[in-house]
Design a protein that fits this description.
Chain lengths: 343, 343
């Protein structure tokens, strides 16, 4: 059983995958495994993945057969296990929990070589819709406090399979980065009775120099204190704490905006590897909602996607400090991205 | 002038290197620059670096000439600038500061190909001594709140020059990771009147399964909630908040312990790339010591080196959450490292 362990110094949870126990010889090189030509995510190989959790498919097709448009399956090598009750325990000064959680893969389309940014807008919207459906469904499980949706595009960004896919991990704790954002949003709201993100967006829209694009009420901008070159946030201009509540019209607007940003990054940076992740409010139905990690209902939060092109290596300074050196001012990154010609 | 910017959501400072303004075409590939065979850190090339700040050299040799054992020079492409007064300002909802700081390079020896772990113990101790001398000297500058000493070994770990070197960055803010540790240590002390790190060490020494090695009062262990496979902390068993106060005897013990750990990592993991960084108490002479980042004198802190072999890629999940998945339980990592035969 994997284990969740709490670092009493950094106040951070870590997943220790106790079952896999990787030996030193497993770490010889960082290179990706050579492709054998076989892909378990291709159409026709549905029996090579665990049985599907969800698929957008015609009504006359059976589960785990060809014909699907978007397909969600459990991860074959999950970081957390779905079965069991949460069990918290101490170990002297330390705290731990059994590694309960969900780990799923969204196979974005049957096409092996079609990257997310190149999907037609109708299909892009279907993928976003699937994110939302899984988010809603996983929130029904009261063991899960947070559901993280994230994508690794390209080997440098951590993708182990080339077939375009997104991952979903549901955890019994709110991850530290999100907890920090929730806390900042709460503090700002208590002081000013305004949303921190709405205040930031107001200033960004007035200043304009960090805006990348605006589409139907969605905005993409490079954050004032960007950690990485060409980091972009995509978020609704109108306040909304929960991505699960986005309407179909909103999903279409989001898809248009995200597709626009991905095309600009591709054009400006020669199809870079990237990560993106959704930050949205935690599960309000969670058993453990009164933890130190989350002290109020998160209506003061504002959901957003964070897109990070993987252009620079992270070295000791960043690891040692959580303090980043960014060689590209976000105003210049935004200007480059605005000026890219997209077709 | 570089700029320090504060992220109001993540409460983190970022260095924006506004002078370099890297364009999209600068990021074509992550590969290191090809070596031209010329190394500015080699003996005889002293005039190819900025003038030395410090060097261990015989009394009959002149600065910036051959003959030195360890040499410290300003970084030719510094992330922060040494000249000027600190200037804090707002920009609407945001906060910023001019990018004042020091950025130095410790050239560990004249030998181009001799890695730190392979240095004879006498030379290893000299390098540690130089760290301490620079730390003491930089602390005299009241503009600097924190001095970070860190090493990138190998291209994967972020090293841009092959000649073994360590970097030192002095900053006018306490970096978030260290601030979090200081805060945890303070909270623990207020509650229990004991040092958090001492309590952890006591348990580790009793349990024993995460201990890698012990040398003359220094201990190396794999942390309970290790973020990365084979992560190792090296620290004095006896309480000490400030690395600058370590005696010569202590420096020798530290050198023996660090060298032992580096040899074990090399043996177990086939000479892996790694980062290490020193976490020690901030500058108590700093102008700005009453910030939210640092609320008490740090005598409750406990200095330590964090050594992180770079064996796994950091993917979207980690970036998105600050929540790590570690495939190797620290107990197993410690056991492998204990069992390595070192010569």
């Amino acid at each position: 059983m994997p284990e969740l362990r709490h670092d009493p110094i950094q106040k951070r949870w870590v997943i220790i995958a106790t079952e896999r126990g990787r030996r030193p010889s497993d770490f010889v090189r960082l290179e990706p495994e050579q492709s054998s030509g076989f892909c378990p995510f291709d159409e026709g190989n549905e029996d090579k993945t665990p049985p599907e959790v969800l698929a957008l498919r015609p009504e006359n097709t059976k589960p785990n057969t060809p014909g699907w448009a978007v397909r969600v399956v459990p991860n074959k090598f999950p970081a957390l296990r779905i079965e069991g009750e949460l069990d918290r325990a101490g170990e002297g000064i330390y705290d731990k929990m059994n590694g309960i959680g969900a780990h799923e893969v969204v196979i974005e389309s049957p096409q092996h070589d079609l990257n997310l940014g190149d999907q037609p807008i109708e299909h892009f919207q279907k993928i976003m819709q699937v994110y939302q459906m899984r988010l809603k469904d996983l929130k029904k499980d009261t063991r899960f406090r947070y559901i993280l949706i994230f994508k690794n595009q390209g080997v440098t960004a951590g993708a182990s399979l080339a077939h375009p896919h997104t991952q979903i991990i549901a955890t019994p704790v709110t991850p530290r980065t999100v907890a920090m954002e929730l806390e900042s949003a709460r503090q700002h709201y208590e002081l000013k009775e305004r949303c921190l993100f709405c205040d930031i967006l107001k200033q960004e829209l007035e200043q304009g120099d960090r805006i990348v694009t605006q589409v139907d009420g969605m905005v993409a901008y490079t954050p004032f204190a960007s950690r990485f070159p060409f980091e972009v946030f995509v978020t609704p201009i109108e306040h909304s704490h929960d991505f699960a509540e986005l309407t179909d019209k909103g999903l279409l607007a989001l898809s248009r905006c995200m597709k626009d940003v991905l095309a600009r990054l591709k054009g400006a940076l020669n199809d870079p590897p990237y990560n993106f992740m959704l930050h949205t409010s935690p599960n309000t139905k969670s058993q453990a909602r009164r933890s130190t990690y989350w002290t109020s209902l998160p209506y003061d939060f504002h959901w957003h996607f964070e897109i990070i092109p993987r252009l620079v290596r992270i070295a000791g300074f960043e690891w040692g400090t959580g303090f980043y050196i960014n060689p590209t001012p976000p105003e210049e990154a935004a200007r480059y991205l605005r000026e890219v010609e997209i077709t």
